[in-house]
Structures are given as C-alpha cells and as structure tokens.
Amino acid sequence: MSEKNILINNINVFAEETAASKAVAMQIKQAIEEKQSLGQPIILGLATGNTPKLVYHELVNMHKNEGLSFENVITFNLDEYYPMAPSHQLSYHNFMNMHLFSQVNILPENIHIPHGQWKAEELIEKCEDYERKIQELGGIDIQLLGIGRNGHIGFNEPGSTSDTRTRLIDLHEITRNDAAADFEGLHNVPYQAITMGIQTIMSAKKILLLALGDRKSVIIHKALTGEITANVPASYLRILPQIEFVLDAEAAVLINT
Fold it and tell me: What is the pTM of this model?
C-alpha cells in the first residue's frame, strides 16, 4: 500500500502518561466485567516493555481496591526473546509475572506466552499451535500494544507484512540498541524473538495502541500520517475500524489531532 494522510478519528490524547494509562486500564476493566456479566471468558492480548507498566499497575489496583476479578481472563502475550529461559530476570514471562500475574487472581492455565526455549526443530509447530489456541477461543477481544521507535508492533520489525502470523524473527538494530541498557550491554541482547504476527494482531476485535513520551513522537507521526508500509508495521493499523491510538501529549506533539 502507499496511501498517505488517511484521516483517522480514533486518536485520544491525554495530558500526561498516567491519565492515558488509566484510560486504557479502564477500557480493559469494563470489557472484563462485561464478559463476566455474560458468564463468558475474555481473551486479552498483552504487551511488555515500559509502555504498559502503568496500565498493569492500574489493573492491579482495580483488583485489590475495587474487586476486579481475573478469573475469566485468558491472556496471550505478544512475544518473547529467543533463546530466553522463562526464569531469566529479563524474560517476558518474568515481566508479566512481576507486573501483573502474581498480583491478581488469574488462573495459571489461562496464561499463554511464547516460550523462549522451544526447540529449534519444533518452532514452526509451536508457533502454529499458539495461533490455533487463539483461534479456538474465538480470537483476541482486546489487544494492548506499544510501538517501537522503528514502528514495530510486538516484535514485528520493519519489513513485516500484514499477512504474518506467530513466528521467529530477527530483531532490528534499533530494537536491540533500545534494550541494551536493560541487558547491561548490546552484546547481551538476544538477536531473535518469537512474536505474534501482524495478521493475528489485526484480527483482534479491539486494538489499543498506547504511546507515551516524546521518544515516540516521531514514529507516531510517521505511523499515522506517512505511507502504509511494511517499513513501518504500525502503519497497517490505522485503516482498521477497531483501532484506538491512546497517546500522551508528548507522544502526540507532531500530529494534528
């Protein structure tokens, strides 16, 4: 595609990151409770990294202070470094347990995260099984996303096409450099990751892309007003009716909302 400057109205800009994160958490809370009222499970697609931390903090507070139950919640995480032991302090298994799962009443069997120690010869089968589990449950109800400085969603790096599914992918130089501080040096950052594909993400019934801070302003501007292209994977999202971009003022500074 090479469409430019598509008008999108589903952009919500908040004064600062806490307000933006609370708004996302509130949407997730309401969706969980709506499904509970119907006696149904809800399928959440979850993200990692700095961006969703405040969202998870708010959801934990809602659980502890407002009685929000996670018993009907089934989760599928976007990605995991490869190779990476789930017990590693920088694994996304550990991240999710630390910031959300260990603090709410979600059932362990309802948690799904790509495994960073799947055997190489089993990777294709395991990725297909991950997709199958999502589809058997009726698809993702709400997908929470961040956006990388190179426009990646999940670990769908530049060059990822809109028909991709869960797979092993090589990490982009910008992605690895952005992770270098956490890993105490670029040489410690994995070169690959397992990621849910763009087609899987785009199939979610509701997508909430959260972007915070001025570091994301350039890529947000490019994703929302530039070409729709595999070079900026997040640009695929803006033509979807179910997408909502939730930004703080710093991330939105370059766009005209």
Answer: 0.95
